């Protein structure tokens, strides 16, 4: 969906209503757009069309990606910048300059673009403009600007007084483009600056920082490739000294406030990084030509330390995870590879590869009760935890254990999946041999959900009860099949037994009774997913169908769901009671007959022709 402004401009979404945003483009175009209503207008600071004119003839100079940003302190205040900084409190109806010209304003740089043969004056090419603006979150009225002509200014009183705090020439050459600036989230007097000189055939990285409102500066590029020129620098608001830098050839990271940098490429292609933004502990990366990329979760970087790196194992504390609404998730594979992962992301570290037989990952209730256990050698791929030396990741889909199943189970529109956990506090425990580590984490309710926590708890209780009843039902079916196999095995070994007919008759009666129970609980004729179209589903599938219906969305079960669940449960319980009676009377009677007949445990039919020849009889 197209938003405000043009192809190149800054975007400024409203903090409380992101349907409203401002965008820019060349010619000083400034456009608010309301995505909810579709309304839009132009509120250019000074709507004097510059087409064909050089910058020397314009009252204000706006290049094609001039800064636009809302104030951190007042959602009614919007800033934008040409060669001066402007402010509006009425959505662009009125603009007030709050600074003098904060550029070099050099006439030699303000002529027409192009040469004497073909000029190209659209306003895009204007020079001596403010290229970057930021407001500190720590001090009201403290604003910084950086220009494409290499000047840095600061005001601490909302624009009444400005100070040129440009780094000295020994650190920053004149005419360097200040490409981005970042206020230090932990120090009001701190600023980080990314500069570029590639237009002058200088491809070196240029990053700077000040901690004293620009009185002194330090260059911070150690560790960055000397040909990876820098475009952007950002400071992590959760961990002091954690910095991210985007260069022409990829990403870098610093844990020591810029004293040293390391490559932070991971799986990112080698590509120019034009901008970075941190949103709710995700790092959003804008690239030139390869779309947007996101590091889904920065919290492991917040926790990383030398002590962790030297430890034999470590379980990182996961960030709060949203229990997402929609569809109930019963048709989404467990631990599905999504971006971002749909569940609680658990990251853990092993200095050396441990014995896989000694490793497990457990999900626990707040009181320590076990919800689920995952192991490296789990049969199901979705339940299999990763196990490598170094960093590992497992995504818990927030589901409790599934109902018990049995081989060949066919279901039509029913689910045996466990229900999703309700929002609240939980624990994860990593076990490796005699070592273990436990961390707490929180599941948050989907902010789009209209249901109360009581509704979600009612849904969970309803679904977990169905899951448990399905488990009881399927265990009964497995029990029936086990008994059938054993009875058939015994009745095949009755040759020469005096009471063979009595035992066969008892066994046949027993099998008939448990067959009736099995066929009431499950449609035994179903051999494929299409068979239920011909052979009616039985009690287990009907109950699973209620769970499938009740799991859609984040809502408490309807009265009808409860009524159908109760009716089916009563019918299942009646069959299970019949089965218990058979197992308590008919089966012991059959076993008594077998025991009295002294039937051999292993029987060989000696009438086999081959056996006769070999024996010489």
Characterise the protein shown here.
With 617 residues, this protein is an alpha+beta fold. It has helices spanning 299-303, 306-310, 453-491, 500-521, 539-550, 559-584, 586-597, 609-615; strands at residues 11-13, 20-24, 30-34, 68-70, 78-81, 85-88, 96-97, 130-135, 143-147, 152-155, 163-164, 177-183, 191-197, 202-210, 218-219, 230-235, 243-247, 250-254, 262-263, 273-279, 282-287, 292-295, 313-315, 321-323, 344-350, 359-365, 370-374, 390-396, 424-432, 435-445. The strands form 8 sheets. It has a 5-stranded mixed β-sheet with strand order 24-30-29-26-27, with no helix packed on it. The relative contact order is 0.05.
Distance between the termini: 91 Å
H/I helix tally: 8
Structural class of the secondary structure composition?
A: alpha+beta
Cα Rg: 36 Å
Envelope shape: elongated
Total E-strand runs:
30
Query: What integer is the average pLDDT?
Result: 91
Largest sheet: 5 strands, mixed
Q: What assembly state would you assign to the polypeptide chains in this entry?
A: single chain
């Amino acid at each position: 969906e197209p938003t405000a402004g043009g192809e190149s401009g800054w975007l400024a979404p409203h903090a409380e209503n992101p349907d409203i945003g401002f965008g820019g483009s060349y010619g000083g175009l400034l456009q608010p757009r309301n995505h909810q209503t579709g309304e839009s207008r132009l509120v250019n600071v000074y709507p004097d069309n510059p087409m064909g004119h050089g910058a020397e003839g314009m009252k204000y100079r706006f290049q094609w990606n001039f800064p636009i940003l809302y104030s951190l302190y007042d959602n009614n205040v919007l800033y934008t910048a040409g060669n001066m900084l402007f402010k509006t409190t009425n959505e662009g109806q009125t603009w007030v300059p709050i600074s003098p010209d904060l550029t070099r304003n050099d006439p030699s740089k303000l002529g027409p673009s192009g040469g004497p043969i073909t000029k190209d004056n659209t306003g895009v090419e204007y020079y001596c403009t403010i290229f970057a603006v930021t407001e500190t979150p720590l001090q009201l009225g403290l604003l910084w600007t950086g220009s494409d002509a290499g000047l840095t200014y600061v005001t601490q009183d909302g624009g009444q007084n400005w100070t040129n705090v440009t780094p000295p020439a020994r650190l920053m050459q004149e005419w360097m483009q200040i490409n981005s600036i970042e206020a230090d989230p932990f120090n009001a007097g701190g600023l980080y600056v990314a500069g570029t000189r590639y237009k002058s055939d200088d491809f070196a990285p240029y990053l700077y920082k000040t901690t004293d409102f620009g009185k002194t500066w330090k260059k911070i590029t150690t560790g960055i490739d000397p040909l990876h020129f820098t475009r952007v620098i950002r400071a992590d608001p959760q961990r002091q000294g954690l910095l991210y830098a985007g260069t022409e050839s990829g990403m870098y990271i610093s844990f020591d406030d810029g004293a040293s940098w390391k490559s932070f490429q991971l799986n990112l292609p080698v590509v120019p990084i034009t901008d970075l933004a941190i949103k709710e502990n995700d790092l959003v990366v804008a690239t030139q030509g390869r779309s947007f990329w996101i590091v889904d979760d920065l919290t492991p970087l917040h926790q990383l330390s030398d002590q962790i790196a030297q430890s034999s194992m470590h379980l990182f504390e996961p960030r709060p995870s949203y229990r997402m609404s929609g569809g109930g998730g019963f048709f989404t594979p467990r631990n599905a590879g999504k971006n971002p992962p749909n569940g609680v992301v658990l990251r853990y570290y092993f200095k050396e590869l441990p014995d896989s037989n000694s490793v497990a990952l457990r999900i626990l209730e707040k009181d320590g009760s076990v919800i689920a256990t995952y192991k490296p050698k789990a049969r199901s791929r979705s339940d299999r935890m990763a196990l490598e030396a170094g960093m590992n990741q497992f995504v818990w889909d927030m589901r409790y254990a599934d109902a018990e199943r049995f081989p060949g189970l066919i279901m039509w529109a029913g689910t045996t999946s466990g229900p999703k956990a309700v929002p609240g506090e939980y624990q994860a425990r990593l076990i490796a041999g005699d070592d273990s580590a436990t961390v707490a984490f929180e599941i948050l309710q989907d902010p789009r959900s209209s249901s109360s926590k009581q509704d979600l708890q009612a849904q969970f209780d309803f679904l977990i009860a169905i899951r448990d009843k399905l488990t009881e039902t399927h265990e009964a079916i497995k029990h029936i099949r086990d008994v059938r196999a054993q009875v058939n095995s015994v009745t095949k070994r009755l040759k020469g037994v005096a009471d063979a007919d009595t035992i066969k008759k008892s066994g046949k009666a027993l099998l008939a009774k448990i067959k009736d129970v099995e066929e009431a609980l499950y449609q035994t004729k179903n051999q494929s997913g299409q068979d239920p179209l011909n052979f009616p589903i039985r009690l287990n599938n009907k109950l699973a169908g209620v769970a499938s219906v009740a799991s859609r969305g984040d809502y408490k079960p309807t009265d009808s769901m409860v009524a159908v669940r109760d009716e089916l449960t009563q019918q299942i319980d009646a069959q299970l009671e019949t089965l218990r009676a058979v197992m308590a009377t008919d089966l012991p009677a059959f076993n008594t007959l077998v025991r009295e007949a002294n039937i051999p445990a292993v029987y060989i039919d000696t009438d086999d022709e081959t056996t006769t020849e070999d024996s010489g009889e």
